[in-house]
Write a structure and sequence with these properties.
Blueprint: H1 12-45, H2 49-93
């Protein structure tokens, strides 16, 4: 039920949800790249640049998937609310 229904204008919650979904396209490459380079830099400070890069890469991937999980949970909650609202409207209009 992600798509807007006819006859109902999208509210601020709908636009916020779409913003979260669109931002995932930026969060994945930024968090993975930033994690790798920060990990490599920190690892180089301790004499283990490659190991730090690997740890940073894993950290960036985990961060990206954590954000994906949070957005997916928001979508599921929003979808459940929309489904309840539609069923309530349908029940109130039936004779």
């Amino acid at each position: 039920m992600i798509f807007r229904r006819r006859g109902r204008a999208g509210g601020p919650g709908d636009r916020s949800l779409w913003g979260d979904l669109v931002s995932l396209g930026l969060i994945f490459p930024i968090s993975i790249t930033l994690g790798f380079f920060l990990g490599r830099w920190i690892g180089a400070q301790f004499g283990h640049g490659q190991g730090g890069g690997l740890v940073g890469l894993c950290w960036g991937i985990a961060t990206a998937f954590w954000e994906l999980y949070k957005v997916a949970q928001r979508v599921v909650r929003w979808d459940a609310q929309e489904t309840r609202r539609i069923e309530k409207d349908r029940d109130s209009h039936e004779p």
